[in-house]
Design a protein that fits this description.
The longest helix is centred in the last third of the chain and has 32 residues. This protein has one domain. By secondary structure, the protein is mainly α.
C-alpha cells in the first residue's frame, strides 16, 4: 500500500473507527462539558484539532531524542509539559485574536491541557510505530474525529432540550450520559472497517 493510501486510512479510521471520545473513551470531560451548543463545540473542536496536531508535530521528534539518549521513560512527563505549553500558547493567541470565542469557551479551554485525548494521540503515535507523516495524520484525524463527535453530541443535546419531554429522573447528567452511550454504540458499527 502506498504512503498516501495508508495516511487516508489512518485519517478515516481516527474519525469513524477509533474516535477518541466515542470509541476509545478519551477526552470525555470536554466532550460532555462543551457539547451543550454548536458554537462551543465548533470552537473546542478547532482548538483540540490544532493542539493535537501541533503537539504531535513537536512530541514525535522529541521522542526520537529521548530514545537516542536512552531516556524514553521520561515520555509521559515531557509530553505533558509540551502539551501544557502549547495550550498556553493557544489560549494567549485566542485571547488576543478571538476574544468572543475565548470568552465563550471559559473554563473549557484550559481543559485541553488535561484532555487525555491529546496526550493519548502523542503516546499512541509512538506505540504504533508510526512515521512522522503518519503520526501527524493520526493527530489531525483524531482532532477531526473529536470535533465530529462534539458536533453530533451538541446537535442531539440541543434537540433533546428543545423538542423532548425528559423524565425528571433523567434530566441533566443522566440524559447526557445515556445519549453519549447510544452514540458510542452507533460508532461501534464501524469497528472492523480497516482490519
Amino acid at each position: 500500500m502506498s504512503q498516501f493510501g495508508k495516511i487516508v486510512i489512518i485519517l478515516v479510521s481516527m474519525v469513524l473507527v477509533d474516535n477518541y471520545p466515542l470509541a476509545q473513551f478519551l477526552g470525555i470531560c470536554p466532550f460532555l462539558g462543551v457539547s451543550t451548543d454548536l458554537d462551543s463545540a465548533k470552537g473546542m473542536g478547532v482548538a483540540v484539532t490544532f493542539v493535537m496536531t501541533l503537539a504531535t508535530i513537536v512530541t514525535w521528534p522529541v521522542q526520537q531524542l529521548l530514545d537516542k539518549f536512552g531516556i524514553g521513560y521520561l515520555q509521559t512527563v515531557v509530553f505533558i509539559l509540551i502539551i501544557a505549553a502549547l495550550v498556553q500558547f493557544v489560549e494567549m493567541f485566542m485571547k488576543k485574536n478571538m476574544p468572543a470565542l475565548y470568552k465563550s469557551m471559559g473554563i473549557y479551554l484550559p481543559l485541553i491541557t488535561t484532555n487525555c485525548a491529546v496526550l493519548g494521540v502523542c503516546i499512541s503515535n509512538i506505540d504504533k510505530g508510526y512515521t512522522y507523516a503518519e503520526s501527524i495524520a493520526q493527530a489531525f484525524g483524531g482532532g477531526i474525529g473529536f470535533w465530529f463527535a462534539l458536533t453530533i453530541m451538541a446537535g442531539v443535546r440541543s434537540r433533546l432540550v428543545d423538542q423532548s419531554r425528559i423524565p425528571k429522573s433523567f434530566q441533566g447528567v443522566p440524559i447526557v450520559l445515556t445519549t453519549a452511550a447510544i452514540l458510542s454504540l452507533a460508532f461501534m458499527g464501524f469497528q472492523g472497517m480497516f482490519g
